[in-house]
Write a structure and sequence with these properties.
Elements: E1 9-13, H1 18-29, E2 33-38, H2 41-52, E3 58-62, H3 68-81, E4 87-90, H4 106-134, E5 138-143, H5 156-175, E6 181-187, H6 207-219, E7 224-226, H7 229-248
Parallel strand pairs: 1-2, 1-4, 2-3, 4-5, 5-6, 6-7
Helix pairs in contact: 1-6, 3-4, 4-5
Length: 250
């Protein structure tokens, strides 16, 4: 049986809109309870109202993943309120246009690094240690991007964070291979969402078509799930470096 059909309690960051919302909807439709973590109370309330109206078990939890202290506090609050939770989906993300020769404030760059890279690494290690101590069968999933493999030059920081997160996921999976924790990577292509702001991505694939495809792969037990050009990048990268990775880490 897939972990998606086991009636688990799932925690997802950035689950109130875009890719996170469609993933939340499909997981809840399969019988799990989903806790959506986000900074914007209005977006949380809207997502919970929409999904609850369909009889789905969804709750909103306001929290921020930007700083280390906020992440530690969030982890403590979530494990206290939802001790039965056994799935973490790191989906919160920001994507900005950055002119490297322009006047972009460094604080803005750091925020992008914090949300896209530091947060999933930190939360993954916090939950992994907690579940191992509690002898819980856990799942850690993280959303990267097809831009992990081929960067979009107008968003260099975003692409760098996703490439780094992809690398981290491989290492995390390797370090947890003898533990009872499954490590999953969700690799979307450009999808029509508001990731870059309202109307920011309009040339991407249909959100529901993407969700249908990757959700079927998740239910099949795949550890890396991608769609369209992101799948091309995933396969090419894996074919090019997997043998070397296994040699270095044997």
């Amino acid at each position: 049986m897939s972990w998606l059909n086991e009636g688990r309690t799932v925690i997802i960051t950035g689950g109130a809109s875009g890719i996170g919302l469609v993933i939340t909807r499909r997981i809840a439709q399969d019988g799990s309870k989903v806790v959506i973590v986000g900074r914007r109370q209005q977006a949380l309330d809207a997502a919970v109202a929409e999904l609850s109206a369909k009889g789905l078990k969804v709750e909103g939890f306001r929290g921020d993943v930007t700083t280390p202290s906020e992440r530690v506090a969030l982890f403590s609050e979530l494990t206290t309120k939802y001790p039965e939770a056994s799935v973490l989906i790191n989906n919160a993300g920001v994507m900005k246009r950055v002119d490297l020769l322009g006047d972009e404030p460094w604080e803005s760059v750091v925020t992008e690094l914090d949300i896209n890279l530091h947060a999933p690494i930190h939360l993954s290690t916090l939950f992994a240690k907690y579940w191992i101590e509690k002898n819980v069968s856990g799942v850690i999933a993280s959303t990267t991007s097809g831009l992990s493999f081929v960067p979009l030059a107008i968003s260099p920081v975003y692409c760098a964070t996703k490439a780094a997160l992809h690398s981290f996921i491989w290492s995390l999976r390797h370090q947890l291979k003898t533990k009872n924790i499954k490590v999953i990577e969700i690799i979307p292509p450009a999808v029509n969402t508001d990731l870059m702001g309202p109307g920011g991505i309009t040339h991407g694939v249909n959100l529901d078509e993407f969700a249908d495809d990757i959700y079927a792969k998740l239910k099949n037990g795949d550890e890396e799930v991608a769609y369209q050009f992101a799948e091309t990048g995933r396969v090419g990268y894996r074919n090019a470096v997997l043998q070397t990775f296994e040699f270095l880490n044997k």
